[in-house]
Design goal:
Layout (H helix, E strand, L loop, with lengths): L1 E2 L3 E8 L14 E2 L3 E8 L13
Parallel strand pairs: 1-3, 2-4
């Protein structure tokens, strides 16, 4: 969980590796002005409802 204003994260990869156990929240961000550069989501990724991903 990231909970702060003015955060910049670079070179981040998020991937579900839980196997048959199921899925969990991989990244939760709360705050103003969050920037993530050069990131990628491994498969599978499920976006939570009522959120935006750009």
């Amino acid at each position: 969980m990231v909970d702060a204003p003015d955060i910049i994260i670079e070179n981040l990869t998020i991937q579900n590796t839980s196997g048959r156990v199921g899925q969990a929240v991989a990244l939760h961000v709360e705050g103003d002005r969050f920037i993530c550069k050069n990131w990628r989501f491994g498969k599978p990724v499920i976006k939570m409802p009522n959120t935006t991903m750009q």
